[in-house]
From TrEMBL:
Keywords, sorted A to Z: Kinase, Transferase
Coiled coil: none
Segments traversing the membrane: none
Ranges where the GHMP kinase N-terminal domain occurs: 81-146
Pfam families per UniProt: GHMP_kinases_C, GHMP_kinases_N
Organism: Caballeronia hypogeia
Protein name, UniProt field: Uncharacterized protein
Domain GHMP kinase C-terminal: 232-314
């Protein structure tokens, strides 16, 4: 892994913004056809992660972490900084400021984007060369899906190839990028978040996956065909109707498989009602990202998105739902030099 100092002096502070992603479904959760998982996903232009890393005063050895959304997030950042220092070597203390992150455990990939944004900013302020894949390995991201990692680099609609089911060294293998398509600029997606709940994560997620029956090879073949011969060509040709139908098929198939663990095809009944109302009024590709609770409805235009939002709201009076209209994001993470704060005498 290259970690040599760059030729130019690094900026003293850098801000990284990385896109949230929708995980549209696994292709083969058990590897029944030879590769485990495999994923389809989309980078979006809403719910971004934005952090700044700054060199601390030379006299201070402990990093300051500002703006964390919770104590859990603050502790995670501390852990990431420790892992990065262990892998990349001791250097100047780096302070972290969190400007915005998605709500955790909602299916938007917040953990991976925080890790990659933090690692990228940390390495660049240190003047080190570390790729996104390097950072993902250091911070143990991409255990199942590569969508967040490849979305960070490229944006757009992403398909990853999962892992070879016979490879036992899973900790060092990031699912390879096998397809990337620019998402049509006119299409929109309505996001619906049930703010009263979180999706499965951590040990509960591991136990849930372990409790599921083997995924039938016939269904894995069906999903492979959906991705290769319907979803990817539809995006390439801006064929919204085919795309929407294929997304609904993919989501229904994978949702029924995960239903015993998450309580239904959708984790949130309120989200399900809102999305079903959208689909009853217009052509839409509906589903849930990862374990939810965020659900989505793809529609063909900004005008259709306004109609979808109105339909979802009509059937959700009093429900703890938050709505966002987003577009696909056809670029990955961005970074820029940031102003370096003047620390007071008591900051040392």
């Amino acid at each position: 892994m290259p970690t040599t100092p760059g030729r130019l002096s690094p900026p003293s502070a850098i801000t990284v913004e990385s896109p949230a992603r929708l995980h549209l479904g696994f292709i083969d959760p058990n590897g029944s056809l030879g590769r485990v998982f495999g994923s389809v996903g989309l980078a979006i232009d809403a719910n971004a992660t934005r952090i700044t890393a700054r060199q601390a005063p030379a006299s201070r050895r402990n990093a300051m972490i500002e703006g964390a959304a919770s104590e859990t997030q603050r502790q995670r950042i501390e852990q990431y900084l420790t892992q990065l220092e262990a892998a990349l070597g001791r250097g100047p203390t780096i302070d972290i400021e969190v400007h915005e992150t998605p709500r955790a455990h909602t299916g938007l990939g917040s953990g991976t984007q925080l890790a990659l944004a933090l690692g990228t900013a940390y390495a660049r302020v240190r003047g080190l060369e570390a790729t996104t894949a390097d950072i993902a390995r250091i911070l143990a991201r991409g255990a199942r899906s590569g969508i967040g990692i490849h979305g960070f680099d490229h944006g757009g609609l992403i398909v990853d190839g999962g892992r070879n089911a016979s490879n036992t060294n899973k900790s060092t293998i990031i699912p390879p990028l096998i397809a990337r398509q620019a998402f049509p600029e006119t299409w929109r997606v309505l996001l619906v978040d049930d703010t009263s709940r979180e999706g499965l994560h951590g040990d509960d997620e591991k136990r849930g996956l372990a409790s599921l029956a083997p995924f039938p090879a016939k269904l894995a073949a069906h999903l492979s065909h959906l991705v290769l011969m319907r979803i990817l060509p539809a995006v390439a040709e801006s064929d919204f109707e085919t795309f929407a139908n294929a997304i609904c098929d993919l989501q229904q198939t994978i949702g029924e498989y995960f239903a015993p663990v998450q309580g239904g095809v959708f984790a949130s009944p309120a989200v399900a009602r809102a999305l079903e109302a959208v689909a009853a009024e217009q052509k839409a590709g509906i589903g849930q990202t990862s374990w939810g609770p965020v659900g989505f409805a793809f529609v063909a235009s900004a005008q259709d998105a306004e109609r979808a939002l109105a339909a979802a709201r009509r059937v959700s009076p009093g429900a703890p739902l938050a709505f966002t209209v987003a577009s696909g994001r056809n670029r990955g993470a961005t970074w820029r030099a940031a102003s370096h704060r003047h620390h007071g005498a008591n900051a040392a």
